[in-house]
Design goal:
MFS_trans_sf; 4% strand; 2 domains; 215 residues; single chain; membrane; two-stranded antiparallel sheet; transmembrane; 68% helix; mainly alpha
Length: 215
C-alpha cells in the first residue's frame, strides 16, 4: 500500500467518524423533538418537512437522516480498511454522548418555534396543514414511492371507515417498510430543485396517515 493510498484511507476514516458523530446528534435531536421546544436546529434539507408537519415531522426526519448517516459512516469506515468492531463500539458511544448533550442543552417550552439561520419564527396551525399539490418529478423511484403512499392513504381511509383493524394494521406495516426507500430516494433528489416540493408533499401524505393512526 502506497503512502498516498494510506493517507486517503485515513482521510476517509476521519470523514466516516465525522458522519457518525453528526448522525448521532441527529438521532438524539430527533428523539427530543417529539416534545415541543422553544427553538429547533433544523437541517435545511428537513425545513419543508417542519413547515408542513411541525416538530413531529422534524423528529421523524431527523431519525431517518441520522440512521442513514450512521450506516453510511460504518460502511465508509469498513471499506477504507477500518476494523468494523471499532465502529460497533464508537457509534453507540457517539449516540449516548449526543443524548447527554441534548439533555443538558435543550430547553423545553410549550411555544412551537423554529430557528433557521439565527432567526426564530413562529409556526401557526394553519402553516402546518397547507394543501400541497403533487409535484411532477423526473425520478422513477420517487414517483413510484409517492404512487404507493397515495394508494396506502386511500386504502387506510377505507379500512378505517369499514373498521377493518386487521387491514389497517397491515397497511401500517407496509407503510413503515416503504419509508425505508427514502434513504435511497432523498440523496439524489435533494440535489434537484424538486426536492422541497417532494418533501412537502410526502410530509402531507405522512400527516394524513398519522391522523388516521391517532397521532
Amino acid at each position: 500500500m502506497t503512502t498516498k493510498t494510506e493517507a486517503n484511507n485515513v482521510a476517509k476514516k476521519v470523514q466516516s467518524l465525522a458522519m457518525g458523530l453528526i448522525g448521532a446528534m441527529f438521532i438524539a435531536l430527533g428523539f427530543s423533538y417529539f416534545t415541543e421546544q422553544a427553538s429547533y436546529r433544523i437541517p435545511r434539507i428537513l425545513l419543508p418537512v417542519y413547515e408542513l408537519m411541525g416538530n413531529i415531522g422534524l423528529a421523524i426526519g431527523l431519525l431517518i437522516l441520522g440512521l442513514s448517516l450512521l450506516y453510511t459512516a460504518y460502511s465508509k469506515f469498513k471499506n477504507s480498511g477500518g476494523n468494523p468492531s471499532f465502529m460497533w463500539i464508537i457509534l453507540p458511544i457517539f449516540v449516548a454522548s449526543a443524548f447527554v448533550i441534548t439533555h443538558i442543552f435543550e430547553k423545553k417550552n410549550t411555544e412551537p418555534h423554529t430557528r433557521v439561520g439565527g432567526t426564530i419564527q413562529n409556526k401557526s396551525e394553519s402553516d402546518l396543514h397547507t394543501n400541497i399539490i403533487r409535484p411532477k418529478l423526473e425520478h422513477t423511484e420517487a414517483n413510484a414511492y409517492l404512487d404507493r403512499v397515495e394508494t396506502i392513504v386511500q386504502e387506510m381511509t377505507t379500512a378505517r371507515e369499514e373498521k377493518n383493524d386487521k387491514n389497517f394494521g397491515e397497511l401500517e406495516i407496509e407503510y413503515f417498510e416503504l419509508t425505508k426507500q427514502l434513504a435511497d430516494i432523498i440523496p439524489p433528489l435533494s440535489k434537484t430543485d424538486k426536492y422541497a416540493d417532494f418533501a412537502k408533499y410526502n410530509a402531507q401524505l405522512a400527516n394524513k396517515i398519522n391522523k388516521m393512526r391517532g397521532i
